[in-house]
Amino acid sequence: MGVLDTFRLDNKVALVTGGSRGIGAALAVALAEAGADVAITAREPDLAARALTHLTSLGVRAMALDADVTRPEQVTEAVDRIIEQLGPIDVLVNNAGISFGATAVEMTDEQWQAVLDVNLNGVWRVTQTVGRQMVARGTGTIVNVGSMSAMIVNRPRWQAPYLASKAAVHQLTKALAAEWAPHGVRVNALAPGYILTEASPVDQPEYQPWCVEPAPMKRYGLPEELGPATVFLASDASSFMTGSVVVIDGGYTLF
């Protein structure tokens, strides 16, 4: 097998949570371009339909499911439907996430709970559900979308629960990597820096002093720039990697 062949995901089934827009949509497309059949979960029907159309145009089987990662019964139902229609899940990308910008004294308990429930508990629920069948089969790869926010404090908006949730995701990644390595399941994470999406308008002037100027590369990233690393972690190209957190931040965390 040639080196480029190790990146291929032909005959694999991938699930990307929060895959209808932004980073999730870009990662789903990358996996499809590498040959995987892709299922996405989303909570916006119109965006999910558009993402699904794009995925099927790439010549792979695809499906979109309306599933809330904070609802255990919806997670179980979604996983069962994917396995029934596409086959066992070989690749899981935990991307679904939310954040609120507010100071710690202004943050409501409801906002704190919502962020932790999606960003951490949601990752746990989906990973445990999919991980059970991966462990039983003795194979599988999981890529958690963490953040450089696990290592720095975001500016200009204060986001304490978001930072806490992403730090926990990094540690959860390492814990599961150690536990599941003997069962043939690898677990790694991405730690993106400032990426331009609808939810993160880092191209706006007020973000430049905080998000662009401190980075050695002097720019923000684009969602599609995370795709190659995701394919790498999902494929046999990273066969001797587990428990790693791959930082993709234009050098932001170097200082």
Give the amount of beta strand, in percent.
5-15%
Q: Which residue ranges are poorly predicted, with pLDDT under 50 across at least 5 consecutive positions?
A: none
Gyration radius, rounded? 17 Å
The protein's oligomeric status is: single chain
The termini sit apart by 40 Å
Number of helices: 7
Number of strands: 7
Q: Helix content range of the residues, please?
A: 40-55%
What would the average pLDDT be, to the nearest integer?
97
| Overall spatial form | globular
Order of helices and strands: EHEHEHEHEHEHHE
Structural class: alpha/beta
* Biggest pleated-sheet summary: 7 strands, parallel
The largest beta-sheet arranges its strands as 3-2-1-4-5-6-7
State the main characteristics:
alpha/beta, 255 residues, 7 helices, seven-stranded parallel sheet, 7 strands
